[in-house]
Fold these 3 entries.
Entry 1:
Amino acid sequence: MKRIHYVIVMMCLFITNGFAHDANKSFFKIEQKNNVVEVQAEFPWSIRNAVMEAFPELESSNNKKDFETAFFNYIDANFSIRNSNVLLSLVSVKEVDIQSHSHQNNFVFVFAGNNFDTVTNTVMFNIYDNQKNFHDVEINKEYEEFVTTSENTSFKINLESDSESSIGNDTIVIALALVFSILMTLLFFKTKKKLV
């Protein structure tokens, strides 16, 4: 009887860990690094279908370079980063081998520019109406999360720069010091008045 329980427990473990990621979900980590913006992307296996749909001529190609070029062009057309109204240019798209699952594909995109405030992401929307792209954005060690869907394809970053946050902090410190000084002065005169 114990053997059957062991087998059932093992089957449950393998069944729950054996399913692939949702084919309609992608994950992105966007980070400022020196003079570039780096995007780490994790795609499901279906990313290939999205690229093939966008570039049907790949059906007849066996050349890996053709697919790499088409993938770069697909990302360039469907993932954009802006600073105000200036579009940052896509510099490179590299596949990386940090897979935690065999059914996912990881890439790093590099954009020229060290500041950004708007991201538009329509990757894989051409094959799934219910596609969701999840974004973790890091700027100056502050984090914010966003999701793009076919109804909401872009988002604006609301994180402060270091100079903006330090100006806000300085203002608070000065205001508190002023209030404290006024209270101490009032307390001093009140106690002096009682002594006289």
Entry 2:
Amino acid sequence: MKESAGIYSILESLQYGLLYLVAAFIAGVSLDFAFPIYDPQKPTNKVFQEVMGQCLSLVVTVILVRYCVKSVPLLLPIKGTGYVPYHTAEYNGEMMMSFIFIASQMNLINKVNLLSNRLYMFLFKDERKLIDGEHKRMQVRASKHL
């Protein structure tokens, strides 16, 4: 009985994980497409407004995606097995949605990186970029000491 409950739990996680993957990917790409493209020449306040708007829209989108996915019934025949559905961690989809929403919104990622670089430049008067896995700032400081 416990073995079958474990199998049903895995199958339920797979079903909802795949549903969240597809729904979050479509919603994430659509949301990224709905907002202005990344432009490093824009003023900081404009980029910040775009990021805030996209993040607030993302909150609403997560609620809608979760509602849509949870409306899909479990496709497993569970009658007579003693398995209680809708209690697996993947039923809520946090992990899958987080990964897919982040990966599918390249404009948002670039804008957040731009804001981060501008803040870093403002605070430290230095640029923060990764080059070959190391911070450029660290390389610049090391070369100044030589």
Entry 3:
Amino acid sequence: MSKGSVSDVDRFPMSIITYHSNHSSISNFFSLQRKEKIVFYSDGMLELEGNRSEIIDKSSFNIINIHDAQSIIFRSARYKNRLAYNILQASAFISVFSMLINVDYFFYFIFGDYKPSNLMLLCFLSPIIFLFSDFKRDLFAEPGAIIIKQDENNEKVIQGDLPDAGLHLFSFIFFLITGIIFSIVSIDSVEFNPLFEDFIATIIGFLILSVFGAILFHIIFPTKEINGIDKNDITSNITHLYFAMMSVKQNNNLNFLLQDEDISKELDEIRESLRQYQDFMQSVVSAEQIFNASNPSMGVLAIGISTEAIMKQACERIGINFKPSAILTLDPLIKQYNREAGIDSRIKSYLEIIKQMRNRAAHDFNINWQEFKTTLDQFCEVVKWYYSVFEESE
């Protein structure tokens, strides 16, 4: 790994959220515009996720550095009329589910001679409730939001989900399945002009295969990493994003928090012990990113990324080649190396501690000083192990 790669881990993604400018699932599903994902980094920068290139200025992706914000206000998702909203959500779910299990009757009602009862007729009309819920449920509730104020006349608002977003998502999935089943039954049962029937069947078949193909593609070839961190390890909700912002904004530097002289002395001793591995450390990651983290949780995140870089280099040194789509996070790296060359049980336990603490730091931001120091001690042992196995023998 070249020294030029050090810059790739100068900062770490702490939270990621899909920006909601429209809460209609139907509009978003059929929209031609790509969903915008907003990523918050450890240096305080809030940015749009996107591929960087030489023809697009990097600053074009920047939204704001929260260190420049006067205030950050969190507003949780709330009801304007709780009873009306909950009744609408429940009714929408029941309506699409009942339509799904009666889709064949609906087909014969449209194209055949089926005469439904009044209750069944209400069932056929019930998807109107879902459509109203999808487009207008924000009449009864407000989405969660983070309001970032730069000054009195300038603020940025990041919207989250409306309440009970999971229930509405299930309703939307049932709505789509109902539409697909109805289309398939229609093509199979109605006698069209053969050429027209083949044309319609081809279009619907292509759409269905495209949807399943896209899902399969994302499963097999997922875009898993942002600056070296598996996306699955980055929590995606507006509450987590807010606490990540406040964690960074309220803590300017780890050393500022360490008022205790004994603690500062311990840190200096650890930093000094790593200096003998300076050449190796610089080829993997700058140790200063660990010691200059904004708080203990950020320090543990830096340790986690640095350990991943070390284990990846260790795997490459023993001849392990990774596929382009491989998820190179700490857990599979440890398993790969252990399977090929074996890891001393003591070092393996240190790696497991680092992995667990890194996951907690990424999700909860509740690492204290003593836990940070313990994790840092384990990291030093991993550095010494790598150096003794690969560097001393050269």
